[in-house]
Write a structure and sequence with these properties.
By secondary structure, the chain is of the alpha+beta class. It has a domain at 38-101: Arc Repressor Mutant, subunit A (Orthogonal Bundle). The protein is 36% helix and 16% strand. The longest helix is centred in the last third of the chain and has 15 residues, at 68-82. The radius of gyration is 24 Å and the shape is elongated.
Length: 102
Amino acid sequence: MKNTKKSKKKDVKRNKTIPKRQVESSEKIPCSKSKRREDSKQATMIKLMKRPGGATIDEMAKTTCWQRHSVRGMMSGVLKKRLGLSIASEKGERGRVYRISI
């Protein structure tokens, strides 16, 4: 036998009526497409790589408290692909150093 009992949860979206806000044509609403937090780990990584000396994987991992593979994933997935930043790397005295090319 199939259980034909209906769920007693109410659909909040159907029962709730929200009045639409009437906006006059002269009133402007600010666009909030790019909300960036300046204290995020992503912003911290960008600041580190924009320094003249750049940053190594170990420096970024220590600063963000992430593991090294997470730092590399952030660079390739978010910074390069999603944000479209150009990241240059070179081998130096400290090891491989990453910089954001402007």
